[in-house]
Amino acid sequence: TNTNVQRTYTICPNKLYEIGYLDFSNNLRRNQEGGPPLPLRPNMKLQCGDDGNRDNLCWITDGHLQIDGTGIRGLDDDYLDNVEIVGFVFMRAIQHSLWITKPGSITFRDCEWVDFTHSRGPIMLDFFDIFSSNELVVTFEDCRFHDNQYFGFGAQTALVVANSDQTRMVFRRTVFDKNNMQWNNTSPESRTHVIESLGPVEIEDSCFVNNQVSSAGVAVYGNALSTSLVH
Description:
The chain is an all-beta fold. It is built from no helices and 22 strands. It starts with 6 loop residues before the first strand and ends with a strand.
């Protein structure tokens, strides 16, 4: 595949796609149902149905990892530029729905994350390179996070986590509702949030409704938080 060329992949609608579980070598376990994680490659658009609409019902469920932006399964792209994921519903991964360890620009549009109740956390943005000036920019537009909960000790303390100041997150017209980040939080030292970041965060025209957290809904450490029309 020539990743220098923009490519669009259309996923068949009205279907539940089960992701398989990984062994200790990050290969799919034998004798089980489920496909591999969706690999992120540069200059790709992945959409549900011909128009990339969430109502087309492409449901991605189960697995350790649903969207792979790392090198753990052999993808050797240095950058993940110009990536779009459009119109999917993600559910019930054990570790992460999305894990990224590379720089680039990735946009999720009209996507949904629901029923992450036994996972380490839906979104882990994990790019850091002390020798590089590159950054990872992840944008969520017209997305929804709802009915997720904190699993307990060992889980990340927010639904969306950015682990370094080289990661920038943008939320536009995104809704967080009925997420319980207090469930099974037995440690008074565990401060739970909806969004947690060491990098800059921009939030525009977005809503936070009926979420349970032990501290602030959004926590940004040592960097800038920009908000407008946040409810």
